[in-house]
Amino acid sequence: MSHTFTLDGKTIPFEPGETILQAAGRAGVYIPHLCYHPEFKPHGSCKLCTVKINGRQTASCTMRAMVGMVVESETEEINAERRALTQMLFVEGNHFCPSCEKSGNCQLQATAYHLGMMSPHYDHFYPNRPVDASHPDVLLDFNRCILCSLCVRASRDVDGKNVFALSGRGIKTHLIVNAKSGRLADTDFTLGDKAAQVCPVGVILKKRQGFAVPIGERTYDKAPIGETLAEGK
Amino acid sequence: MTYQLETAQHPETLRRVAIDPVSRVEGHGKVTILLDDQNKVHQVRLHIVEFRGFEKFIQGRPYWEVPVMVQRLCGICPVSHHLAASKALDVIVGAKKLTPAAEKLRRLMHYGQMLQSHALHFFHLCSPDLLFGFDSDVTKRNIVGVAMAHPETAKRGVLLRKFGQEVIRVTAGKRVHGTGAVPGGVNKSLTVAERDELLKDIYHIIQWSREAVHLIQKVHTQDPGLYNSFGIFRSNFMSLVGHNGDLDFYHGTLRARDDNGGMIFDHVDYQNYNQVIEEEVRSWSYMKFPFIKSIGKEHGWYKVGPLARVQNCDQISTPFAEHERKEFVDYAGGTPMHAPLAFHWTRMIEMLHAAEVIKELLHDDDLLSKDLMVQGERQMEGVGVIEAPRGTLFHHYQVDENDVVTMANLIVSTTNNNQAMNEAIRHVARRYLHGREVTEGLLNHIEVAIRAFDPCLSCATHALGKMPLQVELVDAEGAQIHALSRE
Question: Fewer CB within 10 A of the terminal residue: chain B, N end or C end?
Answer without folding.
Answer: C
